[in-house]
Batch of 4 targets.
Target 1
Amino acid sequence: MSNLRKILKGMEKRYAVYTALSPVSMIGEVLLETYIPLVMARIIDVGIANRDLPYVLRTGIFMVCCALFSLLCGALCARFAACASQGFSHNLRRRIFSKIQSFSFANIDKFSTASLITRLTTDVTNIQNVYQMMIRMCVRSPFMLIAGSFMAFSIDAELSLIFLVAIPILATAILFVSTRAHPRFEKMMKKYDALNARVQENLVGIRVVKAFVRGEYEEEKFKNAAQDLQKAQIHAEKLIIFLTPIMQVVMYVSIIATMWFGGNKVITTDMTTGQLISFFTYIAQVLSSLMMLGMVFVSLVLSRASMQRICEVLDEESDVTNPENPIMNVEDGSICFENVDFSYNKREDNCVLTDVNLKIESGQVVGIIGGTGSSKTTLVSLIPRLYDSLKGSVKVGGNDVRSYDLTTLRDSVAMVLQKNVLFSGTILDNLKWGNENATEEEIIQACKAADAHNFISSFTEGYKTVLGQGGVNVSGGQKQRLCIARALLKKPKILILDDSTSAVDTATESRIRTALKDICPNTTKIIIAQRISSVKDADVIFVLDGGKISGYGTHDELLTTNAIYKEVFDSQQQGSGDCDMPGEEGGEN
């Protein structure tokens, strides 16, 4: 029940009104349905028995009117329930998505992207269906059970004892199924996660799959995931399929018993023919309502797994939150790391950054270089609080990043990540992510600085060119330049370029570095790179090795003081020399 309250919390008023109107309409339908058999009994016992055709016609027309009004109530109930359930799912999905947006990277890593997608889609749909069933059947079934039983007892209390045998059998069957089905459906939802993960991974990497001709291999992996889900579904649902035949057997046996005992009562004149026919209708209504109630109960049990998974997301607290009285202004782009340790799993014995100390003045151009896995990206991710440090403090503008309002801090820091992400829409739409109020002049200036204006202008639609999903219709280097332009439009105090010019040639990279100095001279620029040429002109260069600062200084200083930096420089210089040597030898020959 606590999970249900959490899920229902915050429902919009109009959907709550629809939720209330649905059962009210349903009650009207049930009252009329239980009244119609009485009218039918009068037609048989009075009109037909006395051969009173006018009475039969009058009562028949009245019964038809009751049926039509019952139909109207049922239609209204269905409409209100549909509106309520659709609004409920819309509200719930919006809450979940909003919650996910507040998550830190660590929170998202905990759930995985595929699992969050399943919870937003399949799990919410499961609960939506149950919600619609609840506001209809959870009112109709008990009310019909009570009303039908009352009418049946009013006709013949002795014959109604059949209910006392049927109800415990149905209740036992429902309880047996519900207690054993929940764990199986939990397992099934995990298989949904695995299948979604396989689909997502394959579609995102479809170009790689085709390039390596691994289509058959991926098809086999998908087939295995689909088969695992199928087996889990069969295992979970084979309990449910036994419930319907059990209910039907109980219902038919009850009707047969009613025919036998009721028929004898008609023969002995203890019951009229009309009463017996009405009693058949009431016993069908009562047992059908029990069956529906049972299915609702089973559906509730099945949806428990989905409710629990959704509540896990709603209950999850972000690792990164605003302080009580946040600082709302970042003074400058100065950065200071003081004895910083960081671990993804928050374990001190598994830190990827250890005892990091560095100081960067506002407006400096800073280079960060290091081998693969040296935690360069992790280091800069602590600046805008994408993660929080395990120990020590990270300061921006003289204040600990944990003391800032998150929006204020992140608006002051622009990151161009290793993986360039563009969204469906036009080039202009993507650029305005940096500043939705940017003028045309500002956009063009930023694109020129990122060396992107020329290739954008070469497109027929220019800045209104529609990008495919992920920017599939532009090259890797063009993506990088668009992302740099988008970051520049933020006019940040700190600009972080995480290996963001790796897909462009050295001449283009040189033009971008020169333009950055002109367009944002007071912005602190942090350049993470693999190429020494990308950072050698920086004011200070930090060398990372194994999550620690191995050394820092200018290019010339590091060549004489840091063995790692010199080794990288020499290897890259040697690589360049090797490329030139064959040409020279070929020329001589």
Target 2
Amino acid sequence: MSYLRFEKTLMTNLEESLPKELLRTNRSGAYSCSTIVECNTRKYHGLLVVPVPQLDDENHVLLSSLDVTVIQHGAEFNLGLHKYQGNNFSPKGHKYIREFDCEKVPTTLYRVGGVILKREVVFQHYEDRILIRYTLVDAHSATTLRFRPFLAFRSVRQFTHENAVASRDYAAVDNGIKTCMYAGYPDLYMQFSKKNEFIFQPDWYRGVEYPKEQERGYASNEDLYVPGYFQMNIKKGESVVFAASTSESKTLGLKRLFDAEVAERTPRDNFFHCLVNAAHQFHIHEKNDDRYILAGYPWFKSRARDMFIALPGLTLSIEETEYFELVMKTAEVALREFMAGKPLTKHLYEIEQPDVLLWAIWAVQQYAKECGREKCADKYSALVSDIIKYIEEGGHPSLKLHDNGLLYAQSQHGEAITWMNSTANGHPVVPRSGYIVEFNALWYNALLFCASLLPDTDKRQAHLQQLAATTKQSFVDTFLNEYGYLYDYVDGNMVDWSVRPNMIFPVAFDYSPLNQEQKKAVLDICTRELLTPKGLRTLSPKSGGYNPMYVGPQSQRDYAYHQGTAWPWLGGFYMEACLRLYKRTRLSFIERQMVGYEDEMYNHCIGTIPELFDGNPPFRGRGGISFAMNVAEILRTMELLEKYSYK
């Protein structure tokens, strides 16, 4: 039996099936996303969603969906599913679904009377082309298929509505048509592997509704344009491949192309393989050969902090060292441009955040553990040394190294400067500034790691070790409080007593300013007050302002974002800290924690991990449907489990 398989009873129950989403990507920035019953519930959903650089840096929904209708003896059975205003669903194609399987590629089996139709979908790697194969598994009489495309041609952050500006023009191409609704957009090619008839019958389908946008407090209605429909006869046992793309397809090779793409897919036959598949979806390979890690789907970009935190887990932990090196090659150019005060030539966002440079060093440190210190020094010691020097000399506008060896961080214009970056009414919800606990844990770790890459004869090694000794003493004096845990930040007379997960980092890092007893005290507090089956809470229930439910309109969610919600990537560092302190005695405990993540393979977006979870039971997944740092840290934890199991 397949690992990711859903039976008829679940698929035909919209309360169960609509919350389950499915993501396919091409590793170049484009994606295809919907629910497992192919009913779009977000404005970000679409069958073909691609970047259009000539317009902006957002993704754009070109082809929203494709309805297929089975025709026998003049009777029509539409297998599509759309939600309209007033909680109306039409047509109701989900009632014909017999099963859904996602082990190799997403496969839906429909049954209409004596007709059994199989639908399989792949997104071609590195091309903006979605491929759908329809196979008539069984039929007792002549069968015709009709395909009706729903077009949007809009940004994922907007809606389209019926208008007179949209072009109805189309041109015939091999086994299909090409069309473009608005100037500035690429042509959309819709073609089949088999000759067909296109009937031009332009119309707008009005009032399509997206319930996920309603939940989030946004506008939720749009109109979709249908230019007409394609129609063809199909025989029992025959397969037809549909391609939607921004470039013309060679229709004679579509069947071979589909088979080739299927052969490249990682089977999602267990928890680990699902995560590997999810890890690959974050890859971004641009045409100039730059490589990035996307922060998540469906609305994230390549954010510098997220990329460096996620990079080791998404590459080194699954033995893909080469991709780590390719991403770091692109990232090093961006880091050096930033430190030199030059305009960025790379598409790496938020590189100015003050902890980004320190997380870059942490990522390199993981490379050293995986590939050897000598190789790491050869590749990255110059970059690591230059970052340390840049910070020491006060090059970063938001970071200052004080005489006590600690980094003092302050925003330039009142914006959030840490990963806890939600804002409300233009101000950070969690206004962290001054001596920030994870910044200084990263700094201490970076100093000693940099020293370890230098030869013993290098005078700078002794300087870094001496600076680290000063930092260590000041760290303990500044952050460790009488209750055995760490202040979240200290800014002059302002001391934040909130119990937050940022204190876990100095316990998890290779080089820690804390001794064993202090580490255990911090870990105990995190276990008692922050640990959930889905990672660490961002705030203890005992602290003021605890708000664990990430629901409601944007403003309400902003106040909850870092005030009690649980994040799996924080759980990764927690579990690393457990293994460091207690070694093999905590293996079974951590294995039980991993069960909480495996459950998510069947929820939210199947086969991956969402952005965050409510901090209270039943710990529902929220936010972005697939989040790089979460997938990465779970993969890194699995690797750590394996290593400690054999120690």
Target 3
Amino acid sequence: MKFKGFWYDGLMICLAAGFSAVFIAMTFLIEPRLAVAECIAFVIVCVVAVYRALSAKNRYKKFLIKTSKKLDFTDQKVLSSFSFPVAVCDGEGYITWCNNIFLNEISKGEIAQTDKISKYSDGAEVENFLNDEEISIFVDGRYYTVYGISYRSIGKNYRVLCYFDNTHLKTTELEYFKSRPHAVLIEMDNLDGSRSDLKDSELTEIRSRIEAILDEWSESYNSLLKKISEDRYLLVTEKKNFSLMVEEKFSVLEKVRNYEYKNIKVGATLSIGVSDGESIRACEKGARKALEMALGRGGDQVAIKTKDGYDYIGGVSKSAEKRNKVRSRIVGSALAELIKSSSNVIIMGHAYTDLDAVGSAVGLACAAESLGVPAYVVTDRKKTLASTLIEKLDGEEMGKMIIGQKEALAMLGRKSLLIVVDTHIESFVEFPEIYAEAETKVIIDHHRRASADINDAVIFHHDPGASSACEMVTELLQYINPDMSISKTVAEALLAGIMLDTKDFVIGTGVRTFEAAAYLKDKKADMISVKKLFANSLEVNKLRTRVISSAENFMDCAVSVVDFESPDVRIIAAQAADELLKVSGIKASFVMFENAGAVNISARSLGEINVQVIMESLGGGGHQTMAACQLKDYDITKANFALQGAINNFFENS
């Protein structure tokens, strides 16, 4: 048996002796008699110290023997005969006895009197080893399961610890988890619409080259890739390979995004859904849901299904506009049949409704009325950002379709239809009680899909490529009832919603956006009347200017704090965020204000920065260029710090 730690005492004795000799020599030069007395005392101390140092090992051996005698002869014989490591420690954790297997395997033949059991139990203290409980530890490259047995002897508490080596089982278990299957569904999106000027043969060549990129990428992770349709692929891999893909942030996304054909960037992107499961079938089913989530958020990203929802990688590209209106026709026809079979229609938007939510709701209400079914728009008149539109509807006797929560709940029946517009997140709807009571639900939204989406809707019409809910509704109106007559006021309400979300046709517009606007113009929508719906009071304009002037630049993002109270603070914050985008060098804007014990943040961007991703990291959501969040139990200082951290993380991960 080797004992370590005693050489340290010898070294300290030598150093002390050296310093004492020097001190005695100096004293001799001053007072010789005092130096002689010191020398005698020094010799006596040295003799005692040397004797104790030389006898330390023998004394500790006697200590272990004495301690082991506290066990009767039978106990020692039994414990020593065990074929696994055994140690006995006192109530403070100091090792008092151990068998030879423990010395050889656990302590490697070296042990010190001051060693505690925690040194050989992966940091676990003696208190952790209770009766009938096991602890898994990792010591010197091996896995052990340790069982503790308590007993009392001569008035002291002791614990017998038995170490069972299960390294083989643990490594097998780890290898099992590392080899768990993961299904990865990959869809090549935005190819047909990105380069319509290419010939079919050229598109075929581009697809084959992108497939080559996918093949090379999958082979680098020792994974199996199979094509299952023209633009969809299934990759089967193991967890250990998937972990490497995540570490490299699915590098294939950037490779495909930057792919050039004849020195021109193609603009193709990939949407990827990933899921694990107990079987390949379960993996594939989860991967399909994850792929739907990735596509619903605009594509060019990875959605990873987890126990708590979804994790996302990528999502830096703008949502691709889908030119095909077949889906709008199918949804419009299905929605018309659903409305006809309903006793009434209740239409609801998100909390603090804006022109897009109210405008799209009014358009759908008129469509339902044209089919002979009573329809109503439910909103809180005191908490809406579309008060100018509601006042206009009141003046033209259309305000009767605007009702409150109590009226809507009273009207809800078994055959009632609830249509939720401009949001697809259950917690964001204006009146959760109405949502909970409704049996039949329809969702119409353009915001990038979130994990907490509504999953019990009969029709889920979601298009992140659309500029606004009003654009989507304008398309649907032409298929719900082609013969319906849209009034000038309804056309202006829909056009106002489009102009709001596109910042007057600047952000997020596509061909279909202008087609919808042209359709509404054909229905006599007047731009001057629409602009009046955006008018504010002089006081609101002054406060908005105050917010803009207090903004600061953080990583090319304008961050401003509302330092006043106003009933119009939401309108002021949203409009200030829009105006800050007009400042040179600003790529995104964030305006914070306190309300009802929480800090609200309005976020806007010109598309280069995805504010939805930033707001999602803080518990909010929205669209790539327009998002928001609410931080409960935060003050402005703490919220500002959290926002800057989210912005910094976005740039680090993008």
Target 4
Amino acid sequence: MGEQRSNSSQRPTNGLSPSRLKLLAAPFVLFALLFVVRLVYLQVIAAPEYRENAASSRTISIDIPAKRGTIYDRNGNVLATSVDATTIYANPKEIKDRAYAARALAEVLGGDAASYEELLDRDGTFVYVKRKADVEAADALRQKGIEGIYYIEDTKRVYPYGTTAGQVLGYVSVDDAGVSGLELYYDDILRGAPGKLVAQRGNTGIPIPGGTEVDEPAVDGQDIVVSIDIDMQNYLEQRLASGVQEIGGQDGGAVLMDAATGDILAIASTPFCDPADPSGSEVGSDSLKPVTQAYEPGSIFKTVSMLAMLEQGAVTPDTTVYAPAGLQADEYVIADAHERGDMTMTARYVMQDSSNVGISLLVEQHLGFRPLYDKIRAYGLNDPTGIDYPGEAGGYLAPDVESWPHIVKYNVTFGQGISTTPLQMTRFYGALINGGVAHTPHLLIAKPQSGETVEYPEVDVIENKAAIEPMISMLETVVQEGTGKDAAIEGYTVAGKTGTAEYVDEETNLYAKGSYNLDFVGVLPDASSRLVCFVGVNHVPYKRNVAGMFKDIMTEAISRYRVVETDATRAD
């Protein structure tokens, strides 16, 4: 018999076919593959995120404020700077005797112990105790060795001149961010970039000794130099405050500017603001009103109307107009500020005596209201000046001249029914002694660290230069013989204009009765420096003028800047 042979290749030893083996092995292969993918994901893709989460669970990050740049006045005096301070914080979980700690904090830092104890009773591992504390106070607290109290080197903002120029400078928040004034406008330059302090802690939340490090160093801000002369500013503020009180006004504002450059040498409004204690200052005191508040300028606007006519060749100083005692306009009657009879007056006399009737009729008969409107726009009195200060207001004048009521047409000629800002009027008068060129009023003049040149636009706003001389001559007459006699300065030629304006009562929405806004703006047309000064006092209960305040401020400027009388500038 032949021997039978088995075919082992066709008979599996375990009784399973190859296809069935593959089927059973597939889940294990898939599981292994998923495990590998998950491992790769955890170790490669998700690892950074997990490391970050793990790190964050055992660390606390605290911002390190950058030191703000210093603000200097034009003479190098420090107006605002940052000095060393210490921020104090606590880990409530680490403090064993909270009552004792609270008493110690109150003793050194001031305040109520109960308030500190309530602070230390809060949940969590971090709470600010005192931000920007004096270094001396922080050092005294350190000596007490209270466990759970920690210290961060910090800075705080100080203003060496107190309230002087407070509105110009503005103030910062506890986080060293600009809130108002130049601190806000130039915050991106002054603020710098904060850093980060990282403190490691255990699973109880308690910081690990030696586990504190600077993760990102702070980058200090840059310094700026501004056009303000702090001594001149101080005098202007003192004279403004005393003048408002003497004349019985509610508040006031003043501006001293170099018309040749646009540099603001001094500017303020009452009440004043303490940038180191803004919460303790009067509401609204941080607003620089000559920049931020528009108003009806009154008779100082007559210069705008007269210049517009002179530019057009429509009048000369000797042009005459018959001016009745009262001028009918719709259902109203326009009159001058003081009683007089019907009379014929020259254009020069209209300015000298500040006649509302005279200027209204001159414009109506020799220029027209549409050309006047166009000149107002050309002089830049409807648009913001572009000063580098937050919240500048613009002027306003309804554009549809043809639809104006007759009373509005007349009112605009003498500065009622139109709004401007004191700074706009200052800029306009400055152009008169600067060859018709209006410079952009500004405060920043230098960036010391970068060496960057600061430039500002200038606009030639007076097209017909021949109109400048007769206009200045008429303003000189105002001071020499007219309503502005109190502005005269011995040995100097002064040209300027008084203003007595009505204002709208916010409660009645009508012009207030028996109360006025008073202003004066003037220049030194024949002097070695092209200074222009505005002074205004609001809500005065009787008609006066503020020319005497202008005189005192300009006299101080003459002395301080050694201004001499010369006719050299008149030819420019």
